[in-house]
Amino acid sequence: EVQPSGPPNGPNGIDWFDAGLRTMRPTRLDWGAKVGAIMIVSGYVLSAAQLAQSLARGREGTGMDQAAAEREYGRAMARLVDPERFPDAAALFSGGLLEDTGEDTGEQDFAFGLDLLLDGVAVAVAAAEAP
């Protein structure tokens, strides 16, 4: 498990940070925006990894993979969530999204979130390029 205790300061951390800065070198983003973009992407990656580890620990001994755990959660919530009090959550849980498809969608879910973040970075880059 990775538990950052501060900004990157060792050789590996600086190598990673420098790689991010190099990626954004051709943009007109100022240093603060570049650091912000690196930190938000880094935070997302770290958070996703920590969540995946935590969920895996929570499933230990159950015999369930993530897809099965999501199915069980969705079914339980469909029974428990009051549609009058939580209409949108009730619609989500009764809509079948969390039914077990037989495949682990963790990588797809991660990629979707990362794409959303990178789209936001692209908007910032485009705004910095505008006259």
TrEMBL record:
GO BP, sorted A to Z: negative regulation of DNA-templated transcription
Keywords: Transcription, Transcription regulation
Domain of life: Bacteria
InterPro entries linked to this entry: Repressor_TetR_C (IPR004111), Tet_transcr_reg_TetR-rel_C_sf (IPR036271)
Coiled coil: none
Keyword Metal-binding recorded: no
Domain Tetracycline repressor TetR C-terminal span(s) in chain numbering: 5-123
Gene3D superfamilies from the UniProt entry: Tetracycline Repressor, domain 2
Protein name: TetR/AcrR family transcriptional regulator
